[in-house]
Amino acid sequence: MDVVRWHQEPQLRRPLLVVAFEGWNDAGDASSLALGALAEAWRAERFATIDSEEFYDFTVTRPQVRLGERQERYIEWPDIELLGARVPGSRHDLVLLRGVEPQLRWRTFSAAVVTVAQKVEAELAVILGALLADVPHTRPVRVSGTTDDQELADRLGLTAASYEGPTGIVGVLHDTLRRHGIPTASFWAAVPHYVHQLPSPKAALALVERSAALLGAPVDSPELRAAARDYERQVSERIADDEDAAAYVAQLEDAEDTEWDGDGSGDGLRLGSIDELAAEVERFLRDHPRDG
């Protein structure tokens, strides 16, 4: 059975694939919020879905009962969506993959993603994630960038991946895409662990900016920027009512200010010039065509 259901064939120019999963890789909902903001900014439209039947344990990721316009009940299944977007001002368009992290048959799932990437001729894949960390909510979001490709790491200022140990769907997907000739990178935003229960639009905005930088096309997302400001204000108000928490956050701020220079450098992607970054991506892809 073909697990990919095509609704239409997108007409895209040399697209980049951006992936975000809800669940373990999505602290503060940051990566899923970021993908939603990208989809909204460039009016992405769904062109395919990956069937949930093969990849989800429905006792973990449960389908939802919904009511239609005439109050009829129906089941909404947690399919994984693929969306395409035209990106004005960039040499590349965008393919977005979003959904809950699959629990089952990761190799088959990753092969399905490769099938889609090959059909739309995606040239680069970027996987977004967010993790809990000892970072303050009042400072710029720390974003780490990694890749298995040393040349891509050198060109974009990413870290060459050196991790060994247990992995998840992100690691499996990276490996599968790379073995099929599609270079990959990851961006991970750090979310303050002491407010892990709150969605973090601030971390989402940082991921949006990194993704847009690779395309050379800045994203105008005023709603996300406003939500990020509200998030910082609301968390600060909560912390102010607790002396111990305020003292702890002050310690994190001192440590952050000592470790980083505050201009965003050293965070896993050179952000000095969006045009320069896009040019580096273009040179890398030109030097490494997908056909060999």
Largest beta sheet: strand ordering: 1-3-6-7-2-8-11-9-10
Oligomer: single chain
Overall pLDDT metric: 89
Shape: globular
For the terminal residues, how far apart are their CA atoms?
A: 30 Å
Computed CA radius of gyration, to the nearest angstrom: 19 Å
Which strand-content bin applies to the residues?
Answer: 15-25%
Q: Biggest sheet: strands, sense, closure? A: 9 strands, mixed
What's the count of strands?
A: 11
CATH class: Alpha Beta
Q: Would you tell me the structural class of the helices and strands?
A: alpha/beta
Helix content: 25-40%
Order of helices and strands: EEHEEEEEHEEHEHEHHHH
**CATH fold group:** Rossmann fold
Outline the low-pLDDT stretches: 262-266
Provide a count of the helices: 8
Using brief descriptors, characterize the structure shown.
22% strand, two-stranded antiparallel sheet, 11 strands, 292 residues, alpha/beta, globular, Rossmann fold, 9-stranded mixed β-sheet
